[in-house]
Amino acid sequence: MADVASVDRAPAKVNLTLVVRRRRPDGYHDLESLVVFARSGDELRFTPGGEGYRLVVRGRTAAAAGPDSDNLVLRAARTLAETAPVPGGTFTLVKRLPVAAGLGGGSSDAAAALRLLARAGGLSLGDERVMAAARATGSDVPVCLDPRPRFMRGTGHDLGAPLSLPRLPALLVNPGVAVSTPAVFRALGLAAGTERDGDPATALEASPAPKRAGLLSLIAASRNDLEAPAVALAPEVATALAALRADPGCRFARMSGSGATVFGLFDTCRAAASAGKAIAAVHPGWWVKPTMLG
């Protein structure tokens, strides 16, 4: 087992599409979502030593991350330790992503913890105990465990094969409001048994290497079914979308996940950065981050 500190990235998860197919009898919803990951994200360090697990949270958004004792990092670590020979130790989380933002920050942090523990314990990511811990920790943790573009379906545990997609220069914008995922689903108001059309973007699974124009066309033809209910709960989401769409370099804009973060797609990193400067100047309290998606 490794006995020195190791570090891993916890990249932001962005839902380019999010189609709610049906509401299940158990109250959960079956989804289809094209997920990609940003170069931007949190950072997690693990230092083995001692029994059990401890967590230190630092960084710009640490105060909003909630009590350390309830963090998904610790939940994931303790769950894996119940079934696999992994060492105890201390996690240090540098929190950079906004919280409750539709970017899967907590889930990505938990997935990073599982990767670090697997490495320290000599386990592969393909070990069923690692994936079982991911599933038990949260619906978005499995897709974050191996952060590559793919479709996630059902309640998040049904993962498609990794996709080879062109990189997308992007701008992430959060208007400084937290949106409750359960509240957004309640506002969606989907009746049990209702069946909705599938995601047109699933055509990407039959195209091993789509061109950028084709990818953008399929994304635009799809939707995020949670965007309208999120806007109803937090009108600031609509304001952020309008700010992106008003920029001449923005090719497409949509909300990610259940919000409140929105993303804009651009032709170049320079265009995304320029839009970010302009938006931040008008809305200095917003979280604005140029990045690359893929």
Automatic annotation (TrEMBL):
Record bears the keyword Cell membrane: no
Catalytic activity: 4-CDP-2-C-methyl-D-erythritol + ATP = 4-CDP-2-C-methyl-D-erythritol 2-phosphate + ADP + H(+)
Domain (GHMP kinase N-terminal): residue spans on this chain: 71-145
Binding site for ATP: P98, V99, A100, A101, G102, L103, G104, G105, G106, S107, S108
Metabolic or biological pathway: Isoprenoid biosynthesis; isopentenyl diphosphate biosynthesis via DXP pathway; isopentenyl diphosphate from 1-deoxy-D-xylulose 5-phosphate: step 3/6
InterPro entries named among the record's database cross-references: GHMP_kinase_C_dom (IPR013750), GHMP_kinase_C_sf (IPR036554), GHMP_kinase_N_dom (IPR006204), IspE (IPR004424), Ribosomal_Su5_D2-typ_SF (IPR020568), Ribsml_uS5_D2-typ_fold_subgr (IPR014721)
All residue ranges annotated as the GHMP kinase C-terminal domain in the record: 219-281
Biological processes per GO annotation: isopentenyl diphosphate biosynthetic process, methylerythritol 4-phosphate pathway; terpenoid biosynthetic process
Active site (catalytic residues): K13, D140
Listed Pfam families: GHMP_kinases_C, GHMP_kinases_N
GO molecular function terms noted in the UniProt entry: 4-(cytidine 5'-diphospho)-2-C-methyl-D-erythritol kinase activity; ATP binding
Similarity comment text for this entry: Belongs to the GHMP kinase family. IspE subfamily.
The protein's name in its UniProt record: 4-diphosphocytidyl-2-C-methyl-D-erythritol kinase
Lineage start: Bacteria, Pseudomonadati, Pseudomonadota, Alphaproteobacteria, Hyphomicrobiales
